Amino acid sequence: MKKQMLSWKLWQILFLPLLLWSASAYADAEPNNSFAEANPLPLNTSQAGSLFSNPASDTEDWYELTLPANGNVTLTASYQAGLSGFIYIHNSAGAQLGFASSATGTLTINCIAAGTIYVRATRNGGSGTYTLSVTLNQPQFSTDIEPNGGNNVLLSIESIQQTFQENQPWTGQLGHTNAGVSDIQDWFYIVSPEDGNVVLTVNPTGTLTGFIYLYEKDGTQIGFSQMNQNANTIFTGLCYAADTLVARIGHSGGCGS
């Protein structure tokens, strides 16, 4: 009997530190009460933390993460019974993009550009632990080579990065922003190899809307068509000689590819 009790105590001594380490391995590291003190947080990773318990004055926790691509960001959180509060998403400058109550537990902000963002968990009442994680829903098609846009025709033509041939499809993304920097137009060279009508077709995804334009290579506008959400958009330039022309995809709302 004494031998069994001794074995049990020995097991407690050896195993208890492991239990304590496991419980705190993914807890938040204080101080993390501002975006300047934010803990690093990878995408798709469950992060545990506590509020108003250790220390008792702890009412908010900040986390910093890097988005590898443009997209819609979802923050999911689960608060322990007895703890209530709010969850937030902030841009790279720390400005708030949106919030939700811990009772809702989910917050999605659309059209965020790749780069640094912050998420925050706060306490409104009670005390206890929480878990949170962040996921990224990327646009359907890959982005284009930047910079290839500008605020006027001359600048935009000078910044074009890619040239495409007849019947060669290409992809791009528009409308994503982070801390006020937004991609609102993309410009491309297109080669028309023979005389005839030139047809520019664009297939937007997501919530992207805007206009498509066709220009002569000196920047003279040939014409444009309105681009509606998830609707094929076509513009046809009539009776053009074989030459290099310019296509522009312009954003007016939403985001997508």
Strands, helices and their partners?
Elements: H1 2-24, E1 39-40, E2 47-51, E3 60-67, E4 71-79, E5 84-90, E6 96-101, E7 106-112, E8 115-125, E9 128-137, H2 153-158, E10 163-164, E11 177-178, E12 181-182, E13 185-192, E14 196-202, E15 209-216, E16 221-227, E17 233-240, E18 243-253
Parallel strand pairs: 1-3, 10-13
Antiparallel strand pairs: 2-9, 3-8, 4-7, 4-9, 5-6, 5-8, 11-12, 13-18, 14-17, 15-16, 15-18
Can you walk me through this structure?
By secondary structure, the chain is mostly beta strands. Helix content is 11%, strand content 47%. The protein contains 2 helices and 18 strands. The chain has helices at 2-24, 153-158; strands at 39-40, 47-51, 60-67, 71-79, 84-90, 96-101, 106-112, 115-125, 128-137, 163-164, 177-178, 181-182, 185-192, 196-202, 209-216, 221-227, 233-240, 243-253. The strands form 5 sheets. It has a 5-stranded mixed β-sheet, with no helix packed on it. β15 and β16 (221-227) form a beta hairpin. The longest helix has 23 residues, at 2-24. The chain is elongated. It starts with a helix and ends with a strand. 30% of the residues are buried. Residues 1-25 have low confidence and may be disordered.
Unreliable segments of 5+ consecutive residues: 1-25
Q: What is the strand tally?
A: 18
The percent of residues in helical segments reads 10-25%
Would you tell me the structural class of the helices and strands? Answer: mainly beta
* Distance separating the two termini: 72 Å
* SS field, number of helical segments: 2
Shape: elongated
Main β-sheet description: 5 strands, mixed
* Rounded Rg: 26 Å
Reading side by side through the largest sheet, how are the strands ordered? 1-3-8-5-6
What sequence of helices (H) and strands (E) makes up the elements?
Answer: HEEEEEEEEEHEEEEEEEEE
Taken as a percent bin, the fraction of beta residues is over 45%
Overall pLDDT level: 89
